[in-house]
Specification:
about 270 residues; mainly alpha
């Protein structure tokens, strides 16, 4: 157990170190995220009165912005050069169809689920449990899209599930450490909301750091005059740091077992 803990700590140290280096080179992604949030907000206002057509328009805009964000994160994780505004422009349109395909595959059963739960007295509880399961099983879907580049959305879902089964401790432990002081109810509440989009909803990408920062600043007792402003300022860079860290952690975990990582770190056998 001690050797596994030491190997896991080394894994996180390497991922944190790489994340800091990547963010120092690619901080401009935070600016892009702010711009994308404004575009998404504008698209939401335009699409709201258009009914089903508005939903399709909003889905397309979301896929465009998420795909562009994933492309920028990919460059931050895999490249050693600094990013510029030109890179933001060149990334527009990347992974658009991948996000659309996965979103469509999930949209149909989620819509059927939500409609079916309306007549069930235990519907809200069952829906929350299913969305929690989706949050867990499909959590690495963004990394699967831009690091593994699978052709089929079903392959993305399968790879995400298999990755979580193999690496669930190492993958979720950082999040659990951050959330633990806030209580299990906080985790269940946030995961049931994030499970709907499998990490491919732009506003949900911002929702997790926004909610965590709000909860932590409240937990630490920051004045109401300061906390909300800090949350707004820190949410975009926090979201980018989280995405970059996930990218480095996924790259380190994918394709290796716990035992292999022990040997790679020179710790020895379990």
């Amino acid at each position: 157990m001690t050797t596994i803990l030491r190997a896991t700590l080394r894994l996180y140290q390497a991922a944190f170190r790489a994340t800091g280096q990547s963010f120092a080179r690619c901080w401009i992604i935070s600016v892009a995220v702010v711009i994308f949030a404004g575009l998404m907000g504008a698209a939401t206002s335009v699409a709201a009165p258009l009914g089903i057509l508005g939903g399709f328009i909003l889905g397309a805009v979301n896929a465009l912005l998420i795909g562009t964000t994933l492309s920028l994160i990919e460059q931050a994780v895999k490249s050693s050069r600094s990013l510029t505004f030109r890179d933001i422009w060149d990334s527009v349109g990347q992974y658009f169809w991948d996000v659309i395909a996965v979103g469509f595959v999930l949209w149909v059963p989620i819509m059927v689920l939500e409609q079916g739960m309306l007549s069930n007295p235990n519907g809200p509880f069952l829906a929350a449990a299913i969305f929690l399961l989706l949050f867990i099983m499909l959590n690495p879907a963004p990394e699967v899209i831009y690091q593994l580049r699978r052709d089929s959305p079903l392959d993305v879902i399968r790879e995400s599930y298999e990755f979580v089964v193999e690496n669930w401790i190492e993958w979720f432990l950082p999040l659990m450490i951050v959330v633990a002081p806030l209580g299990l109810s906080f985790f269940f509440g946030i995961s049931s909301r994030l499970g709907r989009g499998a990490g491919l909803d732009f506003f949900q990408v911002l929702l997790l750091p926004f909610t965590l920062l709000t909860a932590w600043f409240g937990y630490l007792g920051l004045p109401d005059e300061v906390g909300p402003l800090l949350v707004l300022v820190l949410t975009p860079p926090a979201a980018v740091v989280m995405l970059i860290f996930r990218g480095h952690l996924f790259a380190a975990l994918y394709g290796s077992s716990r035992r292999q990582r022990l040997f790679q770190n020179g710790i020895g056998k379990t």
